[in-house]
User: What shape does this take?
Amino acid sequence: MKTILLSLAATFLTFPAAHAGVRPQKPCVPACAPVLKQVCEVSRRCEWRTGYTPCGQCYHYQVMVVTSRGYYSDGSTRTWTRTLAA
Assistant: This one.
């Protein structure tokens, strides 16, 4: 019994010393993420949409669709569309 306890104690005492020189790895993070420089509105238009009541009746309503484009510092662009109540 003493030999088992002594071997376990020796293992736990030498384990941190064996791994003392190993550094934890940092997560990979890009050096610099692109920054949004400018946003331009590409188009703005009104569209008619179709909706249905809970009874199944059809009705029409108007929405405004706005398309925008963002320009980033690395030269890339991103385009997105928003739908707003007219």
Observations:
- Strands lie at 36-52, 58-72, 77-85.
- The CA atoms of residues 16 and 22 lie 10 Å apart.
- The chain has a mean pLDDT of 82.
- The two ends are 83 Å apart (CA to CA).
